[in-house]
């Protein structure tokens, strides 16, 4: 086993510990040029500097509270003045009322489109889900959740539950036609379509037909050139969610540990 020198969490292999350090703790230590706090370069440094932009004088906009660490001001405002913030109806982020117009112009200004722009690195996503996943992996300071069976780490309870079910529990559902086993009923239902003789969803642009609308929609994107499914870890985009899922599994294995 190997221990992380930053947080003292123990990992089964040096490789696993290295992935954890690169993803969570960033690079070498740097000094903030504004408040002189000692930070790790990387995601936490970028988040810290973004907070300085939000609170340039280190003061709460609603009362006399002030602090040299802008994150402390942010936490104070969120807890003590929740009535002064409003939620963006596009992406769900909360802002002070005076900042909402600027947020809409910067993040959601593409002529009515529903693109989601990351304020940290300016990467654009077509869906709220991939935008949130990107933020969670690259720009979040939320503590990781540890799988007590194998030691893998995850950002959300949902990801941890999914991992536990898929990696450490036997599938309970089986296909009556071929015996293939699944954890989730929706996946079994989707699989059962394969045994049907009727492809009820024909493509209007070519002779192909599909078992369900999900596959048809992904196929039609290949005709139109649309690639609305963005990878949260790199610039690649895909016509269907299945292609994106396979790409992430093959190309971004190390990040799958911390989703």
TrEMBL record:
The keyword Cytoplasm does not apply. The keyword Nucleus applies. GO terms for cellular component: nucleus. SMART domains: ZnF_C2H2. Keywords: Metal-binding, Nucleus, Repeat, Zinc, Zinc-finger. It is found in: Nucleus. GO terms for molecular function: zinc ion binding. Pfam families: zf-C2H2, zf-C2H2_6. This is Uncharacterized protein. It comes from Cyprideis torosa.
């Amino acid at each position: 086993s190997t221990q992380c020198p930053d947080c003292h969490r123990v990992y089964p292999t040096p490789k696993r510990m290295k992935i954890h350090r690169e993803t969570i703790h960033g690079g070498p230590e740097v000094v903030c040029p504004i408040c002189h706090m000692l930070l790790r370069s990387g995601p936490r440094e970028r988040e810290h500097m973004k907070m300085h932009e939000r609170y340039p004088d280190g003061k709460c906009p609603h009362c006399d509270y002030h602090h040299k660490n802008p994150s402390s001001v942010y936490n104070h405002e969120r807890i003590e003045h929740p009535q002064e913030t409003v939620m963006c109806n596009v992406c769900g982020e909360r802002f002070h009322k005076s900042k909402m117009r600027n947020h809409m112009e910067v993040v959601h200004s593409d002529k009515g489109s529903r693109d989601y722009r990351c304020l940290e690195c300016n990467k654009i996503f077509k869906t709220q889900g991939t935008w949130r996943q990107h933020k969670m992996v690259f720009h979040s300071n939320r503590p990781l959740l540890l799988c007590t069976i194998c030691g893998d780490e995850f950002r959300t309870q949902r990801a941890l539950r999914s991992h536990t079910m898929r990696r450490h529990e036997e599938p309970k559902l089986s296909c009556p036609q071929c015996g293939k086993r699944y954890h989730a009923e929706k996946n079994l239902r989707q699989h059962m379509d394969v045994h049907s003789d009727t492809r009820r969803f024909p493509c209007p642009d070519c002779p192909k037909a599909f078992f369900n609308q999900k596959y048809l929609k992904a196929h039609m994107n290949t005709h139109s050139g649309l690639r609305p499914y963005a990878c949260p870890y790199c610039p690649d985009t895909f016509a269907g969610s299945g292609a994106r899922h396979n790409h992430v599994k093959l190309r971004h294995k190390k990040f799958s540990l911390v989703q």
